[in-house]
Design brief:
The protein has about 500 residues and is α+β, with helices and mostly antiparallel strands. It is built from 15 helices and seven strands. The strands form two sheets. It has a five-stranded mixed beta sheet with strand order 2-4-5-7-6, covered by helices on one side. The chain has a two-stranded antiparallel ribbon with strand order 1-3. Its EC number is 2.7.13.3.
């Protein structure tokens, strides 16, 4: 039956049914956002650039007025008269008005800025300051004591152009609006082009305007790129926060589902075990004819089948409860010193009847004088029985199961169970180690099982700080190695791990 898709809001959180389509949509949205964020006409970036321009003018409001004051003082000292003072006052007033408007814009929220209107006001203010520099460009000095006054004017204009290029790069066109007319006025009115020095200065000043315009434009592009990177970073942070919120919500729901599952299994175990015990008891009484002979032998066979099925169902319930407790972290270890070899030997005796039914030979290879291991005896028995049951289940009739117990290379102890069965393909080992996972060979051979034996072994070993290794080759058999760490070995003065490499 096809899986039913949920119509609830869960599918809006994580929709795993369309992973490829979701990835394509996410990639398209990301590429579109990158393309739009890097376009200079992006309104959000235009507002940010206007705010950046306003902050630059506000923080450096004194630079160009200070240059004008210095020029006025130098002009007075050189005998230019009050005209230079009037020019300096007018220029300072023009820059003060520009700074006042910039301060007003810098205090305005970016979303409330009308880009076109504010841009026009800024350009108009720059034009006003440019008219002040036009006045300076046409200013003469016939009675002053400066021999090369046009050259000095050109140098001062170069300083003003360079400062404006650095301060006003965030507003496109600010350089041209401010100094296009002053440079033209200097070339036409403020210099004598027939003099070589003044002609060179006029050419230098004329060439400096496009050069500094290019510098300002380059700074503008760099600022836009930084803003785009910042926007992308903010977008990634937002996506990470969203993914984190989704992960937290999914984890919360998974914990609730796991808790509900544990409660369900805890309640169902009692409800199922009670009638199962009755079924097992009554079927055993009937099969052994305790209360009298059964007239029909088929009934006795049916009673044996009922008893076997009940035992299988009870084992299944116990395994499900064990894996549930392990996954929920509620499996309590009752640690005590135990002899691993003796415990595994007892398990071999328990499994021997099943092995004889398949004409299997169990070969035991235990290292002598192993020190005690601090572990849960019930868990170690379950580990050994699960590994032995799997080996007996898949070993061929007349085959062999080899059981080893000994030292590991790191000073720990191990339990290894190897059969000469069909083996497990390498790509199916993760499936076999997952809960309810069964390999293709087990499915084809219709071997009875739940796929919980090895996951329970793995969980119990993890609780002991150990690990499970599964080595298998097709048509050569499988070896499962349960490894306990050296920290659980109770060493004494007479029992030290041998200095040689062992299994695991």
């Amino acid at each position: 039956m096809a899986p039913t898709r949920s119509n609830t809001a869960d599918k809006n959180i994580v929709d795993r049914t369309k992973a490829r389509r979701n990835a394509d949509v996410a990639r398209t949205v990301r590429e579109t956002r990158d393309r739009l964020s890097q376009q200079p006409g992006n309104p959000a970036f235009d507002r940010e650039m206007i705010k950046l321009h306003a902050r630059a003018l506000t923080s450096s409001a004194i630079v160009l007025p200070f240059l004008a004051v210095v020029v006025a003082l130098a002009g007075l000292f050189a005998g230019m008269g009050p005209i230079v003072v009037l020019w300096a006052a007018t220029t300072a007033a023009a820059y003060a008005g520009l700074s006042y408007y910039a301060q007003k814009i810098s205090r305005t929220e970016a979303g409330d800025i009308e880009v076109s209107e504010v841009r026009l006001w800024f350009l108009a203010s720059h034009v006003v300051t440019g008219l002040c520099w036009v006045w300076f460009s046409g200013m003469g000095c016939s009675d002053c004591q400066i021999d090369q006054f046009p050259i000095i004017k050109a140098a001062i204009l170069l300083l003003a152009i360079a400062a404006t290029a650095i301060l006003a790069y965030a507003l496109r066109g600010a350089m041209e609006a401010t100094f296009a007319m002053p440079v033209a006025a200097y070339v036409i009115l403020g210099s004598h082009l027939w003099l070589p020095v003044e002609a060179v200065m006029a050419a230098l000043l004329t060439a400096s305007l496009p050069f500094f315009s290019y510098v300002s434009s380059h700074l503008h592009r760099s600022a836009v790129m930084l803003l785009s990177f910042r926007t992308e970073k903010d977008g990634l942070i937002a996506e990470l926060e969203t993914a984190n919120a989704i992960s937290d919500e999914a984890r919360r729901r998974a914990e609730e589902a796991n808790l509900a599952k544990s409660r369900f299994l805890a309640s169902m175990s009692h409800e199922l075990r009670t009638p199962l015990n009755a079924i097992l008891g009554f079927s055993e009484v009937m099969a052994k004819e305790v209360l009298g002979p059964l007239p029909n032998p088929t009934y006795r066979d049916y009673a044996n089948d009922i008893h076997d099925s009940g035992e299988h169902l009870l084992d299944l319930i116990n395994e499900i409860l064990d894996i549930s407790r392990i996954e929920a972290g509620r499996y309590q270890l009752q640690e005590e010193p135990l002899d691993v070899a003796d415990t595994v030997e007892d398990c071999c005796h328990l499994i021997e009847l099943k092995a004889r039914n398949k004409d299997l030979r169990i070969v035991q290879q235990f290292e002598h004088d192993l020190p005690p291991l601090r572990a849960d005896e019930r868990a170690v028995r379950q580990i050994a029985l699960n590994l032995l049951s799997n080996a007996v289940k898949f070993a061929p009739t007349g085959g062999e199961v080899r059981v080893r117990v000994g030292w590991t290379a790191g000073g720990g102890q191990y339990i290894a169970v190897k059969d000469n069965g069909p083996g497990i393909p390498a790509d199916e080992i993760p499936i076999v180690l997952s809960a309810f996972g069964q390999g293709s060979i087990a499915i084809k051979s219709a071997e009875q099982g739940t796929g919980l034996g090895l996951p329970i072994v793995q969980g119990l070993l993890d609780m002991h700080g150990g690990r499970l290794e599964l080595n298998s080759k097709l048509r050569e058999g499988t070896e499962a190695i349960a490894i306990f760490p050296a920290s659980r070995v109770l060493h004494t003065a007479q029992t030290e791990p041998p200095r040689r490499k062992a299994a695991g």
